[in-house]
Amino acid sequence: MRIFLDANILFTAAHNPHGKAALVIELGRTGVWQLATSPYAAEEARRNVARKFPACLDRLETLLGDIRTVADSPLIPAPAGLAEKDAPIFRAASACRADVLLTGDIRDFGFLMNAPEKASGLLIANYLLIGL
């Protein structure tokens, strides 16, 4: 299974090494699933970690070293109603053929969560609700 990680998953794993987001990445490291993110998501995570938890920047970079980075594909249409700032996340997840786009962003992705028929077959899930 290929899981695409949104910026907030990276951010949370960097500053909370014992939380669910960090566990998702650890399980990816052990081969339970394949992890991917995009330069766009990684940069957003870096900005937020630098602003809120600067001591965790090294941990973020370590985590990113174990995650495949995939490019956004501007040719892939984003679902109607998705905020423009989130379209690159959706497109990168789709471009790498992720099975799941994992996010904590309920405000912007909530209307697409657990509704792959609205997201071109991509399952968008809230990491807090996964059973780990």
Largest sheet: 5 strands, parallel
List low-pLDDT spans: none
Range of helix content: 40-55%
Bulk shape? globular
Q: Assess the beta-strand content as a share of residues.
A: 5-15%
According to CATH, what is the topology? Rossmann fold
Q: Taking strands numbered 1, 2, ... along the chain, how are they ordered across the largest sheet?
A: 3-2-1-4-5
- Give average pLDDT, whole number: 95
Radius of gyration: 14 Å
- By DSSP (H or I, 4+ residues per run), the number of helices equals 6
Number of strands: 5
Query: Which CATH architecture would you pick?
Result: 3-Layer(aba) Sandwich
Give the ordered list of helices and strands. EHHEHHEHEHE
Structural class: alpha/beta
What is the name of the CATH superfamily? Answer: 5'-nuclease
The tally of domains stands at: 1
N-C termini distance: 15 Å
CATH class, named Alpha Beta
